[in-house]
Amino acid sequence: MIKFTTLATVFGLAASSALAGGYVAPIVEPAPVIVEEEPASSNAGLIVPALLLLGVVAAVASDDDDS
User: Fold this and answer.
1) CA distances to 22, 23, 31, 40, 53 from 47, in Å
2) 0.70 cut: is pTM over it?
3) What is the pLDDT of residue 54?
4) Distance CA 16, CA 10 (A)
5) Of 2, 50, 63, 66, which one is least surrounded by beta carbons within 10 A?
């Protein structure tokens, strides 16, 4: 019975020192907000058809019908 009491006392002292310090709430930092900006472009979707239309107009204008 003395061995059991000694062992219980040793484990009790070891457990209390292992839990010393108490609870500390974790510090949560907010994530940085990243704003993605659209790159500046020349809007090639309008330039290519405009150049094709200009080429067709130039081809029709240069057509010679001098029969």
Assistant:
1) 69, 65, 41, 15, 10
2) no
3) 92
4) 10
5) 66
